[in-house]
Amino acid sequence: MIYLDNAATSFPKPKGMIEKMSDHQLAWCGNPGRAGHMLSRKTAEAVRSSRNILADFFDIDDPARIIFTKNATEALNLAILGTVKEGDHIITTSMEHNSVLRPLIASGAEYTIISCRQDGSLDPADVEKAIRKNTGLIVCTHASNVTGTIMPVHRLADICRKKGIRILVDASQSAGHLPLSADDFDMVAMPGHKGLLGPMGTGLLIVKEKKALQPLMYGGTGTLSKMLEPPVEFPESFEAGTVNAPGIIGLGHAAGWIMNRGIEQIYEYQMGLIRMFDEQLRNMPQVEVYGPSVYRSKVGITAFNVRGRSSEEVASLLNDEFGIAVRAGFHCAGIAHKTIGTWDTGAVRVSPGVFTTRSQMQYAADVIWRIAKTASGVRPSRYLPVHPRGCSFR
Ligand SMILES: Cc1ncc(COP(=O)(O)O)c(C=O)c1O
Fold it and tell me: For strand 66-69 and strand 324-325, is the pairing parallel, antiparallel, or unpaired?
């Protein structure tokens, strides 16, 4: 299988990660922070070590400001529902994932959704114009999960700083792909299982200002057990219950792997892949590509449709006939499709990762060309150039 669905979750994972996680579960598993015995202490130390690696990764001085969650959705819910006050107004964009929009609506706050341009890009002036006296939070994705469009989050952060408004960045499609200093923003939410190459069941919220956030979940923290009120310390008060220690250990390993290779090198490699792929698709008359045509204005995602075929049909053909995994449809971001003009159709999304090879991308482009040349309802030929093997980045 050629896996081109890394925007959903990354696959494969860095060498040694699974071994490290299974070693923990098989040989030295204890509940971290819950006891003084050797296994509990060793696991707590390993979780602390992962937190330290991630603090280095995102350039923050205090690892306690990293809260581990089970995914980006939980991190976004915590950031939104844990900071919004009654009477607040929130601004967000039409390119957001439902894991931003749904908690925002559930918060009961007033909100404004800024319409982005058809390529998914955002004019920060539109955001500035929408600010009201009671605007307390601006939420923006760093990069769209539909088109890959990179959003002007640093410009928004400048506006927020001047106006005394908090900014939350959804780094689900940028963490591990673009350099990111978390302290440029008030809060940054992300999954561990996408660009950070960690296992499923991991995510993080990084907060700049500790006192702004309220927990959403209460329970045992392994500290101050005689108190009925929860402790206020970071990160314990936001990580109630047993944490996903093997997942966090795996995530720390994966983040270290990325740091060893260098995020700039990874970025350049992925840009090379997406540029080569995009240029070919944009030259196919039957194919419509969405999002910015300047490849450096986006992360490694290409959204497209083949005229005369639904996105689901194209994805099924890619999977069933050619062994290529992509995602079709609406990508949990319905209104983003209104923005880019695919409200009725959705789109096919191709998202290579750090282990994708050029020959795999070339094969995918060849197959799409073949599908586009074949009449709708007819199965395209399987005869294509040599099937690629191997990964250049491993
Ligand atoms: C931009 C964006 N935000 C949030 C999420 C939610 O991530 P998770 O599935 O880890 O909760 C995704 C997942 O696809 C995403 O692409």
Answer: unpaired
